[in-house]
Amino acid sequence: MSFNTFGKQFRFTTWGESHGPALGCIVDGCPPNIKLKEQDIQVELDKRKPGQSKFTTQRKEDDKVQILSGVFEGKTTGTPISLIIYNQDMRSKDYGNIKDKFRPGHADFTYFKKYGIRDYRGGGRSSARETAARVAAGAIAKKVLENKLGKKFKVVGAVTQLGILGCDTAKWNDQVIKKNPFFCPDKSILKLWKKYLLDVRKSGSSCGAVIEVRARGIPIGLGAPIYSKLDMDIASAMMSINAVKGVNIGSGMNSAQLSGEQNSDEISQKGKKLKFNSNNAGGILGGISSGQEIVVSFAVKPTSSILTTRKTIDKFGKNTTISVKGRHDPCVGIRAVPVGEAMMNCVLLDHYLMNKAQCS
Amino acid sequence: MSFNTFGKQFRFTTWGESHGPALGCIVDGCPPNIKLKEQDIQVELDKRKPGQSKFTTQRKEDDKVQILSGVFEGKTTGTPISLIIYNQDMRSKDYGNIKDKFRPGHADFTYFKKYGIRDYRGGGRSSARETAARVAAGAIAKKVLENKLGKKFKVVGAVTQLGILGCDTAKWNDQVIKKNPFFCPDKSILKLWKKYLLDVRKSGSSCGAVIEVRARGIPIGLGAPIYSKLDMDIASAMMSINAVKGVNIGSGMNSAQLSGEQNSDEISQKGKKLKFNSNNAGGILGGISSGQEIVVSFAVKPTSSILTTRKTIDKFGKNTTISVKGRHDPCVGIRAVPVGEAMMNCVLLDHYLMNKAQCS
Amino acid sequence: MSFNTFGKQFRFTTWGESHGPALGCIVDGCPPNIKLKEQDIQVELDKRKPGQSKFTTQRKEDDKVQILSGVFEGKTTGTPISLIIYNQDMRSKDYGNIKDKFRPGHADFTYFKKYGIRDYRGGGRSSARETAARVAAGAIAKKVLENKLGKKFKVVGAVTQLGILGCDTAKWNDQVIKKNPFFCPDKSILKLWKKYLLDVRKSGSSCGAVIEVRARGIPIGLGAPIYSKLDMDIASAMMSINAVKGVNIGSGMNSAQLSGEQNSDEISQKGKKLKFNSNNAGGILGGISSGQEIVVSFAVKPTSSILTTRKTIDKFGKNTTISVKGRHDPCVGIRAVPVGEAMMNCVLLDHYLMNKAQCS
Amino acid sequence: MSFNTFGKQFRFTTWGESHGPALGCIVDGCPPNIKLKEQDIQVELDKRKPGQSKFTTQRKEDDKVQILSGVFEGKTTGTPISLIIYNQDMRSKDYGNIKDKFRPGHADFTYFKKYGIRDYRGGGRSSARETAARVAAGAIAKKVLENKLGKKFKVVGAVTQLGILGCDTAKWNDQVIKKNPFFCPDKSILKLWKKYLLDVRKSGSSCGAVIEVRARGIPIGLGAPIYSKLDMDIASAMMSINAVKGVNIGSGMNSAQLSGEQNSDEISQKGKKLKFNSNNAGGILGGISSGQEIVVSFAVKPTSSILTTRKTIDKFGKNTTISVKGRHDPCVGIRAVPVGEAMMNCVLLDHYLMNKAQCS
Questions:
Q1: Is the dihedral of CA B246, B247, B250, B252 positive or negative?
Q2: What does this protein do (chains A, B, C, D) (predicted)?
């Protein structure tokens, strides 16, 4: 069972509710003798932190992480690493007026029906606040992978579509991503996105997004067919993120429209260097990494908490309406970027370690 | 670890290579006292069987399944059910001339690099022939679900896009699906698809497909957040099928383009009956089934084994070319329909059983 | 993988080192709607707490537990329960003089060789301090089982052998156990044990113990053959406790000396009541609970940290000697009683929940 | 879940009933490029085969194993290895007269109560016949370990106590074990054991046994604290064998009676060679292998199927008596020796592979 645990060899187990006293995770299976300090994790959490621009929720959270175990004299010891983040801005009152209603598009209805009880404050366990713990775990995975794979290794995510507006991924630029509040990789579209999202926010509505995550410097051979295929585990990882409804590997859904000639990536050798002539596969063949860049994209649905009044029912089965005030992101997809990166790092490390057991 | 095992509570472990003496699976965690006979499994296998129309491979396989354990006097006993299918048409010679080459788009390259050895006959373990074992396991899951959920329960899959040609899913008709070789749900498009696929085959090329699987009569409450979400496990299941490159739940990738108002499904109550006014969620909220129809679609890339000559390298690192003769499906997506149904049945039963443990 | 996680359906993952800032666990898979407060856990922790009598270590630990998640308005919600205990009495200086030496009988040598690094303060992760987290998890399991199984349900442990001194288990009395610092079930032997253990302590030596745990009111049918047999999982649970070297179910090792007639428990029916005429099986047949009392016993080796000077080597491979001062239990077996009870509660709940999934 | 699956990285899943058409297992996680042929497995099966001497059941089973997958051109490929053994001597009639009765000491009662159905023929799934599949899996583990660890590696088991008769384990001789039908390691006791067991058989009774398994040439560092400790997994493995009621690691239950000085094994260094001065730990410290010989012993209860008439009830709740004729081993413990060896090989390989993932 893996209710709140992700991964096989490198595993993390998260806990905590949106408005509880704290949240965190245990990272298990981390190799020993890797340098690790709180700041390594904090930098990743800061990317995801709310309240950083007018395009994200104004909820204030410092998201200060503490390492409680598993690190001794600055190095991992191979024992479980416990991370904790105390919550600060828990305005539970915001939720009092909707505590008996099911917000459309949220997990309120299904949690209540499944468990017969729910923590209604900010969605409780179903809140995207849980992803802070994943980002923390991902930061550790990143440190280990950098140690094992060296400088060529890099995982980088971006928003490639904001609502109805795409961007030109051929213009992808890692440096651009860092310097705009959308994690957009294409400088030329920024102005348009900004105007569009402000309009969405002003109208009390919300929009979805597509996030793309790329991983470079990945060795050939990661992935364990048949039921721990690398693409299967990546899809699983991304689909586990709140509000994600679709996942593509390489050409993804588009591959259905290609011919065999267009789709299968030819291989050629130039001296000692092997080269694929295209990357429709997204770096994965038969569930195993091919050494090409791994490319995954996923769709995040628009924020369901909107100002617009919507029809719903309450827990007594009565028809009612709802308008969610609170402090919500007009596009939750933006803050999903560091989460997607974190999940990618975790899956890759998981498979990197498993591959040692399988093939050495 | 779950290299060749799928599922948590209801689990199956598959084995066998494309050109080995046999293939099969062990189904573990099947509840006791469920009526089961070989014919129940055979009917599902027959849907997937090659050589049934001119649109699929002409490889002849009877795919006769035998139950070797776990059933006593016509009923399951709660012990592992071992299923075996002996292979019949093993023309390994077909592969002799390509045994040292890596077929573009196939797992040849990655298996060889990962394991340092590979069974080159028909792709060995990476062949889609493995999916016969899944279909067999899925047939058992279906029998159990029918027993537990009654008549309203139904899982049905269809091809909703054949290469560049879509169909009108609003015209979805279960009866139509059964009566055409494409598992197409829309009668009006059949002629066009037929002509298109014959052209593809004649040209020695291939095309991809989109498959949609729908599940009805599913109780509220299946799914175990956070890391065994129902949509996560369905995505994982579908992505594990050979050649699948993208998965959508409900509105899927398209949800990125919707506004919050368009996307979140309003809820209303009429007497004792609860109703969602739309189903963008695809029947799953917060990773838990909502009682709505569960809708998943996935893209299958075009068959990589094509007649057209392609550039590749051999295992000695030399540039060469390849043209795959053999007997291949012009569109492997078609035979993925019963596989998608099988995986859906397995995931649903897995979660149905897990839910008993979580909430009773 | 289950490095730091115990259980399948009801799972706990522990973290923390002997002299770190805190320790704790995440309990996952706990059913919803069970009343739970910190005090329920605290009472169990207090049984294990050091410094309670002159027969246990004088290390001072309040072991105050906090619930950080998974409980809302006094009830479990079905989401992960995070428990934390902050450490108070961390005299790391005590260990400075032995930081480079391997204490005989301890994990110092193997941890260092395996991981290439170790937290030498009080054994770090290998310290029995980790068992506090298990006792906390076990307290939750107990609450759930009491809720599900009612008043007949009870798990109770005792020390049945202290070093070379046994006791008469036919005189087992639950009330006696509570009232003596040895958890001894036989009042008649108490004086002797007291004198014996004071002598052991005075001499700077230590002694082992046998602990017996009994579970009553257990329904028939818990246990999942073949590789999750109830006795297998109980043995596994007990063997995971620090310093345990042997485990018996029912007649245990002694069963080797019995004849078939002596050993197999006859069954008889009196009206509606089924009765076994003996209980050599220890309440488990074929890995499944039979409804009889479940009886397990296990041996705890003598404390390895003793005043007596012992030969060992240091991490540079040099011969040296060691005499461990610190504040150690003369018999660690005594404080293993609440740990054995906790593990029993956890295994039973795990199987109780799994059985729902298997057979309902 | 692991109902019928054993192991984490190196895993086997068994299937089959005592009187079904066949039994077998899937071995998953076996490293690639290991030479393997059916004969490697057959030699181990032949050690366990019934009908080899007058001291074991006269049921005739050739136990011929076939490899159905996972091996290509004489080498493992890293894909699942499916093994099958067809049953030959299925005299189900022998069981007709007891099909409604619960044999005391057997799993008949608990299987029926748990599942509401049971295959009464020879115990069905609860029969020790299942252990043939384990021996087959263990043979593969042995081949891999021999390949990885070289000549120093050896696992050898023996019967060290037959009913009420012990033997002198100080006289342990591997060569003696091979040459007597009891797997007894002490030549001097053979005559006595022979006379004793013939008496037991003649009287229609049965006796228990203690089996000891030793593993040499094991590297330091195997074992994953806290909940995959090597001793925990070994205890678990042995306790999963039919009729096992107790397990000791090293001094085992006896350690309770030792003082700290007697029990903890001193360490000393002579040049480059590290030496433990004793081995009460049984080769495992803190759940991790220390490089010493690993020593485990376990008790097998006396065969429950005896000629002597015993009281029991039938499935309708009526009192009755039973006398089991069939063809049973007077001491099932004897044939448990190759099973114990197999389980040890499997656990060791499992941890050997896991250690690669944890620490490389």
A1: negative
A2: This reaction introduces a second double bond into the aromatic ring system.
